[in-house]
Design a protein that fits this description.
Number of helices: 7
Oligomer: single chain
Strand order of the largest sheet: 3-2-1-5-8
CATH superfamily of the largest domain: Cupredoxins -  blue copper proteins
CATH topology of the largest domain: Immunoglobulin-like
CATH class of the largest domain: Mainly Beta
Structural class: alpha+beta
Radius of gyration: 27 Å
Bound molecules: dinuclear copper ion
Mean pLDDT: 87
Low-confidence stretches: 1-18
Shape: elongated
Number of domains: 2
Strand content: 15-25%
Order of helices and strands: HHHEEEEEEEEEEHHEEHH
Helix content: 25-40%
CATH architecture of the largest domain: Sandwich
């Protein structure tokens, strides 16, 4: 198998391209400038007072140190009304300004406009799944520029957090409820999305790509992605599906992962946790995708979620065809 197209699917854009700060990539969403402005306002106020306090503290320690061993403390200063009002009123004004800016930004974040395009986001250990209005499922987030989008997030297992640094926006995906994140004035390009809530072994691999298209390109992408079988063989579709849905836990090159590798799996005996051995044929692979807890491979934990209802029969067949190909290559 050539590494090219698979690498293309799994390669993520550089995390801090030119134009961003040391911490964050360039802004690519409408609210990002205001979010950055509030952040840097609080940041520079904090830096100013940190420096002021530390410098005064060091100066006072030196200036008022005890100079002779026998020196006794004298009575302290009485209070100074003008000074006390100053150090109360200035911080009060600063925190009220911070609250106002933060509250205004928060109200904008939690109130999506009407008519935004809804995209369903399902988080699970350890991948993201995006469902578009036409029912198409994808492991990457694709968005049209020039249109508001509303992400409706939920989780299959534990709390995850969807975070796109270039958008400066983050939202928890919580099991048993929906949460919302809305996006506007998106800049076309490729960005990195990640999980920002520790969710287990594969947390740091829970990355995906966000692509913002020009509006016409988005429609073209959606119609092509909705029917991958039109232009590809089963094994090719299987390769894409494995890269998107399975690769964070199962390698295709023999490397150990959260789950066993797919290389050389098909047609070979598999030792299970209960001590029995089965042959990895079509039925075993299909059962493992739909009912992963039934036949757990020896040496691995029962951590795989079911893909029942998430992969269509044709897609499961495509994955199995691809695994056959991986076995053929492994035998040569
Ligand atoms: Cu999902 Cu961390």
């Amino acid at each position: 198998m050539s590494a090219g197209p698979l690498a293309q699917v799994t390669t993520l854009p550089s995390v801090a391209p030119a134009g961003g700060s040391v911490w964050l990539p360039p802004r690519a969403e409408g609210a990002a400038a205001e979010i950055d402005a509030v952040f840097y306002f609080i940041y520079w106020v904090s830096v100013f007072f940190f420096v002021l306090i530390v410098v005064l503290m060091v100066y006072f320690v030196i200036r008022y140190r005890r100079r002779v061993e026998s020196e006794q403390p004298r009575g302290g200063a009485a209070h100074n009304t003008r000074l006390e009002i100053t150090w109360s009123v200035i911080p009060l004004i600063l925190v009220v300004v911070m609250f106002y800016l933060g509250f205004r930004g928060y109200m904008d974040l939690v109130n999506p406009p009407a008519g935004a395009m809804d995209i369903q986001v399902l988080a699970q250990k350890w991948s993201w799944n995006f469902t578009y209005p036409n029912g198409h499922d994808d492991a990457e987030l694709h968005l049209p520029a020039g249109r508001n989008a509303r992400l409706v997030l939920t989780s299959n297992d534990v709390i995850h957090s969807f975070y796109v640094p270039a958008f400066r926006k983050k939202c928890d995906a919580v099991p048993g409820r929906y949460t919302y994140l809305w996006l506007r004035d998106l800049k076309p390009g490729e960005y990195l999305a990640l999980c920002a809530e520790y969710c287990g072994t594969g947390h740091s691999d829970m990355l995906t790509r966000v692509q913002v298209h020009d509006p016409a390109d988005f429609q073209k992408w959606l119609s092509e992605a909705s029917d991958p079988f039109r232009t590809r063989s089963y094994a090719e579709v299987g390769r894409l599906l494995v890269a998107r849905r399975c690769a964070s836990c199962h390698s295709v090159d023999g490397r150990a992962g959260v789950g066993p590798t797919f290389k050389g799996l098909y047609g070979h005996p598999v030792r299970l946790q209960d001590g029995s051995t089965v042959t990895a044929d079509e039925n075993y692979l299909r059962d493992s995708i739909l009912y992963p807890a039934r036949q757990v491979v020896a040496g691995y934990g029962p951590v795989m979620p079911t893909f029942r209802g998430q992969l269509r029969d044709r897609e499961i067949t495509a994955i199995i065809e691809y695994l056959k190909e991986l076995a053929d290559h492994a035998n040569r």
